[in-house]
Description:
- This protein has eleven helices and 15 strands.
- By secondary structure, the chain is an alpha/beta fold.
- The protein has a single domain, classed as UDP-N-acetylmuramoyl-L-alanine:D-glutamate ligase.
- A nine-stranded mixed beta sheet has the order 6-4-1-10-11-12-13-14-15, with helices on both faces. Strands 3-2-8-9 form a four-stranded mixed beta sheet.
- It is globular, with a radius of gyration of 18 Å.
Amino acid sequence: MPDLICLGEPMVEFNQQHEGDLYKAGFGGDTSNTAIAAARQGAKAGYITALGEDRFGDLLIDLWRREEVDAAEVKRDPKAPTGIYFVTHSEAGHQFHYYRAGSAASRMTPADLPLDYIRDAKVLHVSAISQAISENACETVFAAMDAAREAKLEVCFDTNLRLKLWPLERARDAIAQAIRRADILRPALDDARTLTGIEEVDAILDHFLKQGPKLVVMTMGKDGVIIATKEARHRLAPHKVEAVDATGAGDTFNGSFLARLIAGDNPLEAGRYANAAAALSTTGYGAVAPIPRPGAVRKFLAEQAA
């Protein structure tokens, strides 16, 4: 059985690396990326979602089989499609264009949850994107978090804020409810400032820690990562790499961090490893293809320490 369960919406990605190029097919969806990143680091990961009975759904099933992510509880919906998205790149960064309205994953309900599958794991990981795709998907996230807490799992929540999917006030309310259910909170600094209206980093961390999570791991772009509990705070400097595409960097961080926690690392050790893995993931195109494996991460960390 998996130690880590991720729940959400996977997608097939079409990535245009340079203007005028053909789009290269790949895969995305933040929680699916997280499961794959964890599996590549050696964790036993499983995924809960719904896919259409279409070619894109078949491709995702094949992907998880290759990546050794357990998909035994993935449902197929004959009345809804699998979501897809397109990525373009420019000097301003990468832009996303989604085609996910009415997707099979957005039709998930709490009744669809395989509760025994969740209860047998050690960690559940969910994100705000999974809440944002529909009201019933949001309720499904809450139900999964409640089941995991009842079963004494660690619950990890990523605030991954996408205002194209829902209005800010609705996002704030749903995300606040999720934060109160989380043991590990994974915000990005920009998201945290938008959600809280607070600018100063330590004040943001104070705010989040008062909501219930025992651990806040906040990525801050060029300012690195901060790992905070009520007792201590540690800052990790960013790694300098030749970055070309940051599409799945946060998801790589999440999966690598959770994999290392499950393996027995403390949060600071897990954070150092995940920080390096996320940096390496930006050196290739796409959300999944550049996710590094342990040998590459360990080598990179050794080179950085030399």
